[in-house]
Specification:
The chain is α+β, with helices and mostly antiparallel strands and 470 residues long. It has helices spanning 33-44, 63-68, 82-89, 102-111, 117-139, 148-165, 176-201, 204-238, 247-253, 265-295, 298-311, 316-320, 323-335, 367-370, 374-377, 391-394, 415-432, 439-445; strands spanning 47-52, 55-60, 75-77, 145-147, 342-346, 350-352, 355-357, 362-365, 433-436, 452-455, 457-460, 464-469. Strand 10 (452-455) and strand 11 form a beta hairpin. The longest helix has 35 residues, at 204-238. The mean pLDDT is 92. The protein binds manganese protoporphyrin IX. The site of manganese protoporphyrin IX (MNH) has 25 residues, from helix 10 and helix 17. Manganese protoporphyrin IX is lined by residues 77, 94-95, 108, 160, 274-275, 278-279, 282-283, 286, 338-339, 342, 404-406, 410-414, 417-418.
Length: 470
């Protein structure tokens, strides 16, 4: 086998129209950046470069190279983009803390017992109450018209608030008095996230000015959001509850097995904010996309309903065994990963795809492209086909790179939580309603399909569906 010498990064393929100094600024899509990169990958190949002013990003779009860059021996997880902005706001949360920060290990060890199967059994009860309230809300929707974005935002926040912190937010209309404060908090969170994401996608000069203009408002929002979360912690302490039945209970009562220390209060506040943000936006995106495919396909709905009825119950085990729904969720996560890519940094000088990557240089694994690699999934890689995840067929894709929840020690701690929640909510919806897209929308979407916007995460644009009780 002949080996050619590795090429320097300047030789990476790039988009046409690259300019001196400005770089690829002309081909930046500030509204749908990762979807644009997916499109670019089709002509530029499995690894290419994006250069904007002084920032160079190496985009990895092929499954084989993505697998290589997930080898923890040579590569580590790092934060960049909107995640890095969030680090300024929630510096020591599980998601934002550096791996070498002792608080990351401490929080990870204290919180891990909160994500075991035994814990999921406990959360199942709280999740079920959210499904009940969601149905009540849908039953009252005029004409059965459901604002899917609003509904899934409320449901997923409600799940993390009730299952994680024992605190009903009342966002689904069950407790309107409580909801005022919680709704304000939720709106502030949304403004903060938009601000974080705008900063990273903005044009350099205009963006810096806008960021500065918005800064005082953001400082107020961030301060108030932290105060709200601190209030949750104080309220729980005052309640006299001393159990570790949920995430907040674990953080307030348990000691790190390694150091024997408890988590400091300001870190608990960071974790509560982290769970509220990380736990809802991504799961809502998953549910919305799944509902879109279901509403567009009555035959698929019917097939899944048969599977749900065959399980014959709504306990933890029955729901955990709803394989068809899991397969559907996985196929949605493959095509529309709510976290569209992962940043990885080289621990030492590496060669990737024939290019020399210096130690300390980051690459962006574009899950959105790597999970659609035709070399893995075939020529119809872009086609929605939940049966790909049926056990025997899944084994026929041995070289698949499928990591919608990330990779290595910094992978998503909430994966089982998200999948159980999404399975339960979807199953309950399918069991109780016939779903359809409004007539106009269905016509508009023929051939067009789902449209997604990007705000750090990749999420369906708001749409309506019609839910008719069975
Ligand atoms: Mn989640 C990290 C995707 C649901 C809490 N999550 C990650 C990462 C991905 C991810 C990808 C790793 C990012 C990176 O490497 O930079 N998460 C998802 C998706 C869903 C999801 C696609 C739903 C679908 N996540 C949830 C839920 C929770 C949660 C639900 C909480 C209950 N996620 C986290 C936390 C981290 C994380 C906390 C950071 C873990 C760490 O770095 O230690």
């Amino acid at each position: 086998m002949t080996r050619t010498a590795p090429l320097p990064l300047e030789k990476l393929p790039h988009a046409p129209g690259r300019l001196p100094i400005l770089g690829d600024l002309a081909s930046v899509d500030r509204v749908r950046p990762t979807q644009h990169e997916l499109a670019l990958s089709r002509s530029l190949g499995p690894i290419f470069g994006r250069k904007i002013l002084s920032s160079h990003v190496i985009v990895v779009a092929g499954a084989a190279l993505a697998t290589e860059a997930c080898d923890e021996t040579y590569w580590a997880r790092c934060l960049a983009g909107p995640g890095e902005v969030l680090r300024g706001i929630v510096p020591t949360g599980l998601f934002t803390a550096k791996s070498r920060d002792p608080l990351w290990g401490k929080a990870h060890r204290i919180l891990s017992p909160g994500f075991t199967q035994a814990s999921m059994r406990t959360y199942h009860q709280a999740m079920t109450t959210v499904a009940d309230d969601l149905e009540a809300a849908w039953d009252h929707a005029p004409g059965g018209r459901i604002d899917v974005h609003a509904s899934m935002t409320a449901a997923t926040l409600e799940v993390i608030a009730r299952a994680g912190f024992g605190k009903p937010f009342g966002l689904l209309g069950a407790a309107p008095a409580q909801a005022v404060e919680a709704q304000w908090f939720v709106d502030a969170l949304a403004r903060i996230l938009r601000w974080a994401s705008d900063q990273t996608n903005d044009l350099p000069v205009v963006g810096a000015i806008r960021t500065r203009l918005q800064a005082p408002r953001m400082r107020r929002d961030i301060g108030a959001a932290r105060a709200y979360v601190q209030g949750l912690i104080t309220e729980r302490r005052a309640s006299g509850r001393t159990d570790a039945e949920d995430l907040l209970g674990l953080m307030l009562t348990s000691l790190d097995p390694e150091t024997g220390e408890a988590l400091p209060d300001n870190n608990i506040a960071d974790q509560v904010l982290t769970f509220l943000v990380a736990g809802h936006e991504t799961t809502a995106a998953l549910l919305e996309a799944a509902l879109y495919y279901l509403a567009a396909d009555p035959v698929l709905q019917q097939r899944l309903r048969a599977g749900i009825e065959a399980r014959g119950g709504w306990g933890y085990d029955e729901v955990a065994g709803m394989r068809d729904i899991r397969n559907l969720l996985h196929e949605v996560l493959r095509l529309h990963p709510p976290v569209p890519g992962l940043f990885r940094v080289a621990r030492e000088d590496r060669v990737l795809g024939g290019y020399r990557i210096p130690k300390g240089h980051a690459v962006f694994l574009l899950s959105l492209a790597a999970q659609r690699d035709p070399l893995v999934w075939g020529e119809d890689a872009d086609r929605f086909d939940p049966d790909r995840f049926e056990a025997t067929r899944r084994r026929s894709y041995p070289d698949a790179w499928f990591k919608p929840f990330g990779s290595g020690p910094r992978a998503c701690i909430g994966m089982a939580f998200a999948l159980h929640e999404a399975t339960l909510l979807l199953a309950r919806i399918l069991h109780s309603y016939f779903l359809a897209l409004p007539v106009g929308a269905a016509a508009r979407d023929v051939g067009g399909g789902l449209r997604l916007y990007e705000r750090g995460s990749l999420r369906p644009e708001p749409f309506e569906l019609i839910a008719r009780r069975r």
